[in-house]
Amino acid sequence: MRIIYGFSNCTDKTYNRIMSEKNASAMQPDQKYHGLMIKGLAENGAELVCFSGLPVNRSVTSRKLVREKDEREGNALYHYITTVNFPVIRQLMIFFGAFFGVLRTKKDDETYAVCDFLNTATAAAFILACKLKRVKKAVIVTDLPDMFDTGRLRKSALNFIMRRFDGYVFLTEYMSSALKRKKPYIVMEGHADGNVPLRDDKASAEARTGRQVVLYAGSIQSKYGIGNLAEGFVKAELPNAELRVFGSGDFRERLIELGKSNPNVRYMGVADNSEIVAQEQSASLLVNPRPTSHEFTKYSFPSKNMEYMASGTPLLTTKLAGMPAEYYPYVYLIEEETACGIASALTNILNKPLDERNKKGLAAREFVLKSKSNTAQAKRLIEFLPCLKKKQSDMK
Q: Least C-beta-crowded within 10 Å: which of 67, 71, 123, 279?
């Protein structure tokens, strides 16, 4: 199978070099998401032809002309679209680069297109080029247009683009409500890196020092419940534990202030993904305190939960609407989404025997690596794409 893939990504090698220009260390979620998907598709035998406008803008690089040599990585060929680094001109160049790139790509009966919806110029180009080339196309929708913080006109344009595809990859079942007519789709909450090394329980901070590390890594925006986590940890009064928080967001200053009066609350700043993964594997408990009261939780599945579970360290999370019930046996759940509720959950979990908690983490890892790894999810996508050729009358 040949898959024409559209996004704004690149190989990790090129990504790290580009990001070093602005001294950025944290990998953007879309780079990790699509990078793992590309690798998973290639491991399942797919031939990939990728078109990318590269993950840059004027805040990333001062270069006026953004140009990178094409790269091959295994079964994936990356074509980087040359652009001028000015917003409107850049988007136009991405559109035409992707459009003509798709038209030039060889096609056979097993050729399909897959595109990242968040890259509007690329998505629009794929719609037009694939129609002319008669290639069926699927779009990966990680955010619905109606959830964007933008004007009504732009939302209407985004909805128009989204509905022009032949099939969909949604994060949650709730997302399918955006379709106005019956079209094929699959739900894929995300994917874990199938190559994450097995955690060594004897090397964890708790096993080595007796010190229990509660860890959160991600956006530290107030709306994601980081305040409840920090305050709940303080309320729990756990003498042998410390809270480590990685990331950036509007709660950063409050977190630093809280740490001044509570030395066990440590803000760790921003770190690269390899360090985060190492920290996750050394921790006693990983936490995602995202409140379930927000409407957007129906249409999202935090990629961080997948990474947490793959680490082998037990996870404490809220019962997010977009998280299928099949995950529940493998995680600890926050029943009361308040600081007191989190304090109670932390106390209850950290008082459990270490061996019991390690078994919980290992079971979660085995679950996601068996059914939710990038290789397993890519196989599902490959099996799904031929459904795009079915007539609507044939769909159940």
A: 67
| pLDDT the model gives residue 392 | 56
Strand partners, 136: 112
User: Per residue in 104-162, pLDDT tens?
Assistant: 999 999 999 999 998 999 999 999 999 999 999 999 999 888 887 777 888 888 889 99
C-beta neighbour count of 324 within 10 angstroms: 12
Residue reference for tokens 């953007």? 28
Phi then psi dihedrals of residue 54, to 5 deg: 70, 145
* 85 touches 64 (CB < 8 A): yes
Confidence of residue 393 (pLDDT cuts 50, 70, 90): very low
User: Distance of CA 156 to CAs 130, 150, 153, 160, 222, Å?
Assistant: 22, 10, 5, 6, 29
Listed in sequence order, the residues at least 6 apart from 350 whose beta carbon sits closer than 8 Å to its beta carbon are: 212, 214, 238, 241, 284, 285
Residue whose tokens read 């090698």? 13
Q: Distance (Å, rounded) from C-alpha 128 to C-alpha 131?
A: 5
Tokens representing residue 41 in the block: 């598709």
Handedness of CA 20, 26, 27, 30 (dihedral sign): negative
Amino acid in position 329: P
- What are the structure tokens assigned to 214, written together? 């509660």
Q: Can you tell me the distance from the alpha carbon of 167 to that of 388, in angstroms, rounded to the nearest whole number?
A: 6
Q: What Rg value do the Cα atoms of the chain yield, rounded?
A: 22
CA pair distance 86, 70, nearest whole angstrom: 22
Q: Mapping DSSP to helix (H, G, I), strand (E, B) and coil, where does residue 214 land?
A: strand
Q: Which residues face 214 on adjacent strands?
A: 243, 285
Q: Which helix (H) or strand (E) holds 47?
A: strand 47-52
The dihedrals phi and psi of 6, each to the nearest 5 degrees, come to: -120, 130
Rounded to an integer, what distance in angstroms lies between the CA atom of residue 289 and that of residue 279?
18
Alpha-carbon gap, residue 156 to 146, rounded angstroms: 9
**How many C-alpha atoms does 149 have within 13 Å on its Cβ side?**
1
For strands 76-80 and 111-116, give the pairing.
unpaired
Q: Which residue has the tokens 């925006």?
A: 221
Nearest of 287, 274, 307 to residue 33 by alpha carbon: 307
